[in-house]
Amino acid sequence: MSIANTPQPPYYAVIFTSLRNEGDHGYAAMTRHMVQLAAQQPGFLGYESARDELGITVSYWKNLESIAAWKEDALHRIAQDRGRSLWYTQYSLRVCRVERESKFPE
Amino acid sequence: MSIANTPQPPYYAVIFTSLRNEGDHGYAAMTRHMVQLAAQQPGFLGYESARDELGITVSYWKNLESIAAWKEDALHRIAQDRGRSLWYTQYSLRVCRVERESKFPE
User: Fold this and answer.
1) DSSP line for B10-70
2) Does B8 touch chain A (CB under 8 A)?
């Protein structure tokens, strides 16, 4: 996992913050599959993910249209349903417009 | 660590993604101190953090003015300097406008 090499702003970020249930219940395999599938979507710019107590995944997108299309993807909708029924006790999904970025090293 | 209970959008998010050096070098103590200090700043709305290979910390703010004031805080500037000289091999800091949020359970 590395820091996403995103273009000059503006672009969009989806911040997905979650608390998991105990046990895998197919989560790890589905996550790998969703990462591969998301990376093939038009407008996908990169993603970053970390988990300890809390999980945070940030995906980056060219525009709101590309985020909306990924939300409606058929396989992604199955994953979303399983997320609510099997994997997550709580989550928040925030859609954001990235206005500026600073990097180190510059 | 729980999911930040932020208000209705719009508000702002600072996504800080980082790769660490080996060793602590005062990092854990400074992080605890900075979290306490940030929470006292005008306009602070909450924060979320997770680290495995990558570290992701997202702080939420009322507006760009509150983000700018926190950036210039004297103790925070010392922490920023140590981050570049001691703690991080690489980071990205993205300032975003949160446009909508969905939560589970609703």
Assistant:
1) PEEEEEEEEEEPSS-TTHHHHHHHHHHHHHTSTTEEEEEEEESSSEEEEEEESSHHHHHHH
2) no
Interchain pair A50, B52: CB under 8 A: yes
Quick check: A45 and B94 in contact, CB under 8 A? no
Q: Which of A10, A12, A11, A14 is nearest to A94 (CA)?
A: A14
ipTM of the complex: 0.96
Q: For chain A, positions 46-105, list CB contacts with chain B under 8 A.
A: 48-56, 58, 83-84, 88, 90-105
Q: How far is it, in rounded angstroms, from Cα B40 to Cα B28?
A: 19
Residues of A in contact with B102 (CB under 8 A): 92-93
* pTM, two decimal places: 0.96
What DSSP letter does each residue of A67-79 carry, written as one string?
Answer: HHHHHH-HHHHHH
B12-70 pLDDT, tens digit each: 999 999 999 999 999 999 999 999 999 999 999 999 999 999 999 999 999 999 999 99
Which residues of chain A lie closer than 8 angstroms to B1, CB-CB? 52-54
Cis peptide bond upstream of A7, omega within 30: no
Cβ distance A105 to B92 less than 8 Å, yes or no, reads: no
Decide if A96 and B3 are in contact by the 8 Å CB cutoff. no
